[in-house]
Amino acid sequence: MTLKELNEAEDDFDEDDMKALEMYRQQRLQEWKILQKRQKYGDLREISGEQYVKEVTNAQKDVWVVIHLYRSSIPLCLLVNQHLSLLARKFPEIKFIKAIVNSCIQNYHDRCLPTIFVYRNGQIKGRFIGVTECGGTNLKLEELEWKLAQVGAIETDLEESPKQNITDMMMSSVRSASIQDTSCASYLYGRGPIQSEKKPSGIRKVAPGGSS
Fold first, then answer.
1. Quick one: 158 and 90 in the same domain?
2. Can you tell me the distance from the alpha carbon of 116 to that of 98, in angstroms, rounded to the nearest whole number?
3. Positive or negative CA dihedral for 139, 173, 123, 98?
C-alpha cells in the first residue's frame, strides 16, 4: 500500500492503526533524508587552487572528499579522471574533485603525478602520490575503488584487491619508488594549499637536496 492509499484509508483506522501509520511515515521520511544525503554529489567537479580550502579542507562535516591534482598532458592523470567520474556516480555521497596542479602548487614535479588526497573533517586520511602509488599506467577502475575503500572513503562490494595475485611482483618497484614518493610528499607539505595540514603518518620531512 502506498502513502497515498494510506492517507485515503485513514478514516477507517483505529488508534493503533494511526500509531502504526505515523511510525511508517516517520520511517519513510528518514529513509528519504538518508537517500537525499547520499545523493548529494554524484559527479567529478573541477575547482581552482583558490577554492581548495573551502571545497576540501573546510568541506561539510563528516563528508569524505577525494581530490585529484593533475596535468592534462599526463595520460595516467586523464585515466584517473575517467575512473573518478565513474566512481562519483557510483558513490554520490562522496565529494569527488579534481584540480589542475599548477593552480594549487607551483612547480610541482611531473613524477609526483597523479596525486590523490582523501580528506575527512579537514584531515588527510589517505594519499596516493605518483604512478606507483596510484596503481600504475594500466590502472583499472576496480583497483582505484579498492584503494579508496582501504582508506575508508567508500564502502565497496569488492571482496579482495583486484591486484592481489600480482602484489608480490610489484613490491620491488614499490620499494624503488619510495624515495621518490617521500620527496614528493615533502615537497607538498612545504608548499601549496595543504602546507598547514597535518601530515599523514609515515611521511618524513626531507630537506631539499637531502636523502630519505
1. yes
2. 9
3. negative
Cell 610528499, residue located: 185
Residue range 57-92, pLDDT digits in tens = 999 999 999 999 999 999 999 999 999 999 999 999
| Any domain includes 88 | yes
Instruction: Clarify whether residues 22 and 46 are in a common domain.
Output: no
Q: Give the dihedral sign, CA 79/196/124/209.
A: positive
Q: Is 66 exposed, middle or buried, given 0-12, 13-18 or 19+ CB atoms closer than 10 A?
A: buried
User: How many whole angstroms separate alpha carbon 16 and alpha carbon 81?
Assistant: 54
Is residue 141 located within the same domain as residue 165? yes
pLDDT in tens, 185-200: 666 665 556 544 444 4
Is there a domain that residue 51 lies in? yes
Q: Do 114 and 77 form a contact (C-beta atoms < 8 A)?
A: yes
Nearest to 45 by CA among 76, 74, 66, 73: 66
The answer to whether the beta carbons of residues 100 and 148 sit under 8 Å apart is no
Strand order in the sheet with 95-100: 44-46, 95-100, 64-70, 115-120, 123-129
125, 118 in Cβ contact below 8 A?
A: yes
In tens, the pLDDT along 126-161 reads 999 999 999 999 999 999 999 999 999 999 989 888
Name the helix (H) or strand (E) containing 45.
Answer: strand 44-46
Regarding whether 158 and 71 lie in a shared domain, the answer is yes
Q: In this structure, what C-alpha cell is assigned to residue 206? A: 626531507
